[in-house]
UniProtKB/TrEMBL annotation:
It comes from the Bacteria. It holds the Pfam family DsrH. This is Sulfurtransferase complex subunit TusB. Gene3D superfamilies: DsrEFH-like (3.40.1260.10). The lineage of its organism: Bacteria, Pseudomonadati, Pseudomonadota, Gammaproteobacteria, Vibrionales. SUPFAM superfamilies: DsrEFH-like. The gene is dsrH. InterPro entries: DsrEFH-like, Sulphur_relay_TusB/DsrH. One of its GO terms (biological process) is tRNA wobble position uridine thiolation.
Length: 97
């Protein structure tokens, strides 16, 4: 299943709720304000880094928020084409907002 999270964990519980339902083989795409999680110096980064599923960040949202140099390099940054490929790879999708 592909999980998409759109809200900052500093303003919403959507990321925490998402993490409660993660299963092996799932993937998470952080977009919109959720990309702030990728900044390696916050409490939420440690939560996502060690959960055992692949995490992606949408490049356009990172750029829009000026976070290019602040995001952890261990997370995969994808463009819109990569976003489409993720949705094609997963027959189920859950949006956490």
């Amino acid at each position: 299943m592909l999980h998409t999270v759109t809200r900052s964990p500093f303003q919403s519980h959507s990321l925490a709720q998402c993490l409660q339902f993660i299963c092996p083989g799932d993937e998470i795409l952080l977009l919109e304000d959720a990309v702030i999680v990728a900044m390696s110096e916050n409490i939420y980064f440690d939560l996502i880094k060690n959960i055992g599923v692949k995490i992606y960040l949408l490049e356009a949202d990172i750029i829009a928020r000026g976070l290019q140099e602040k995001c952890d390099k261990d997370l995969d940054v994808i463009d819109y084409k990569g976003f489409v490929l993720l949705t094609e790879r997963h027959d189920k999708h859950m949006k956490w907002a």
